[in-house]
Design a protein that fits this description.
Helices cover 41% and strands 22% of the residues. The protein has a six-stranded mixed sheet with strand order 7-6-5-8-9-10, sandwiched between helices. Strands 1-4 form a two-stranded antiparallel sheet. The protein has a two-stranded antiparallel sheet with strand order 2-3. The longest helix has 18 residues.
């Protein structure tokens, strides 16, 4: 798995799906300041990388969750990748909205999900885990069993690991923050000073102040 983590980290950095800017931090939607920004939707524009991700997500599902009867993608970032994986595996696909539609049938889950289905949820990115586990609750509330979640990337926050453990949801990711830092060092993407900042941020990302 280590070799795969490094490969995916290299690819995400190459296509700028992940950007590292320790000296000029990003501001997340949550208001957090961060030296890293991740947009895995960019992988869809690169057929070779898109296929590597599709195949590896499918392989994990086959190996870890052979009982799976349906695939669900979390809107919006994991809809396309989830559909690609479901197609490769020959399984039904649905996607989970962040909130119900405000018109029509007011669906939270789009597509046809059969009660008692054994579902693997696909995510593009796991940060704090809040939106990911909200999707888990939606599937469970529909009367289905979430057998696991697979994602392209995780920041590896302690709060997310704790939340997934409490929710009893196994999480497997293709790559992670540590692998990205290693890849960035190997390619001289970052300096020694940058590494210290990147490591410091992960200790307390919510309260990190780059200007102190």
């Amino acid at each position: 798995m280590k070799a795969l983590e490094k490969l995916i980290a290299d690819k995400l950095l190459q296509i700028k799906a992940i950007k590292l800017q320790p000296a000029n931090p990003f501001t997340w939607a949550s208001g957090w300041k961060s030296p890293i920004y991740c947009d895995n939707r960019k992988t869809l524009s690169y057929p070779v990388i898109r296929n590597i991700i599709k195949v590896e997500l499918a392989r994990i599902i086959c190996e870890k969750y052979p009982e799976t009867t349906a695939i669900a993608g979390v809107a919006t970032g994991a809809i396309a990748q989830g559909a690609l994986v479901a197609d490769l595996l020959g399984l039904p696909f649905v996607y989970i909205r962040s909130a119900p539609k405000d018109h029509g049938l007011e669906n939270l889950i789009e597509g046809e999900l059969k009660p008692d289905a054994k579902v693997v949820i696909i995510e593009d990115l796991v940060s704090t885990g809040g939106s990911s586990l909200k999707a888990v609750r939606a599937v469970r509330n529909f009367g289905c069993d979430v057998v696991g979640m697979v994602a392209i990337f995780t920041h590896g926050f302690a709060v997310a690991e704790k939340s997934f453990k409490e929710a009893k949801v196994p999480l497997t990711t293709l790559s992670n923050y540590n692998a990205v830092i290693e890849a960035a060092v190997h390619t001289n993407y970052v300096t020694e000073d940058d590494i210290a900042i990147l490591q410091e941020w992960r200790k307390d990302p919510e309260n990190w102040d780059p200007y102190k």
